[in-house]
Every structure is written in structure tokens, then in C-alpha cells.
Amino acid sequence: MDKYIIVTTLCDKEEISNKIINTLLEKRLVAGSQVTKVHSKYWWNNKLEEYDEYKLEFRTKESKFPEIENEIKKIHHYEVAEISSFEIKKSSKEFLNWIDENVKLL
Question: Domain count of the chain?
């Protein structure tokens, strides 16, 4: 059985965030998305970096992760973009049905 997941990524440009979101929605790889502005601190090339970024979250099914990852990598400009997922362990049946109805299954 296909698991339900939330896929996340971050980027620093609003236009790239919107392009990722629109692409994934138009291709019906995800049922919906959320964007949150976050402040990130991290190590990059042995230097401590600090930036405002956009955190993108997508509701989808685990079988779609490889396609989602591929589409994000095509659009994203980071050398190493975080593209991760976590399983939705419990949720309302109505919410899971909504994901089923809106993610294109092949």
C-alpha cells in the first residue's frame, strides 16, 4: 500500500519557490502545498551561513517521491537542495481521500 507523505524543500527565492509549487501541482504529483518563511543557519563550505528562506511542504504519496525529487532538482538552483519526506502516520480519512483524489496515479 502506498504511504502518505509530506515532502519538504527550502529555497531562497520566491520565484523559484512558486515555480516548484506550480510545476508539482500542474503535474498532479502533489495534492497541495504550503509555504512558510523561515530563517536558516547552517554550515556550507566550512562557513556558517545565515539566510531567510522559503520552506515548501507538499502532501502526496510515497510512490511519487522520485518524480517530485527529479522535478525539484530541475528547477532548484542550490548545489545541494534538501529534498526530504516524512510519513503521515495518522490523519483523518477525509484528508487522505483528498490526497488520493488529487494525486495522479500512473
Answer: 1
CA distance 51 to 45: 15
CA 28 vs CA 41, 51, 60, 68: distances in Å: 32, 31, 9, 10
The pLDDT of residue 54 is above 80? yes
Q: Cα(19)–Cα(44) distance, rounded to whole angstroms?
A: 25
Strand partners, 59: 6, 32
Phi, psi of 10 (to 5 degrees): -130, 150
Question: What is the rounded CA–CA span in Å between residue 100 and residue 94?
Answer: 10
| Residue 106 scores a pLDDT above 60 | no
Q: Could you list the residue range(s) of the whole structural domain that residue 34 is in?
A: 4-102
Q: Domain containing 68 — which CATH number?
A: 3.30.70.120
